[in-house]
Every structure is written in C-alpha cells, then in structure tokens.
Amino acid sequence: MDFEGYCVKCRAKVQVKAGTVKVSENGRKMVQGVCPTCGTKVTRFLPNK
User: Fold this and answer.
1) DSSP string spanning the chain?
2) What is the pLDDT of residues 27-46, one digit of tens each?
3) Which of 5, 26, 30, 37 is such that its CA lies 20 to 30 A from the CA of 17?
C-alpha cells in the first residue's frame, strides 16, 4: 500500500511504497513502511471507518 507519511528523522512528508497494514497494541489500524531517503520506519494511523 502506497501512502504519504511524516518522517521524523528527515522532518518532511515522504511518499512510502509497499507499506503494510497492521493493528497497534490498542486496536487502531495503521500503515507502516520505510522512508525512501533515510530508511527509518514511518507510521501513519488510519481512520476508524
């Protein structure tokens, strides 16, 4: 899944490719991927609907 997320290390919004949908410990859906610039893990929470 492709998504746009905020990389904390680069301090910029980045376009992440091949992200995976996961469920956090408190039950919220999120997408995780890798920043194409620095390789840091980027996470974005999805809406509940």
Assistant:
1) --EEEEETTTTEEEEE-S-EEEE-TTS-EEEEEE-TTT--EEEEEPP--
2) 999 999 999 999 999 999 99
3) 26
C-beta of residue 3 within 8 angstroms of C-beta of residue 33: yes
- What is the four-CA torsion angle of 21, 24, 12, 41, rounded to 10 degrees? -70
Tokens of 34: 């890798």
Alpha carbons 32 and 46: distance in angstroms, whole number: 11
Which domains, and CATH codes, for the chain? 3-45 (2.20.25)
pTM of the model as a whole: 0.81
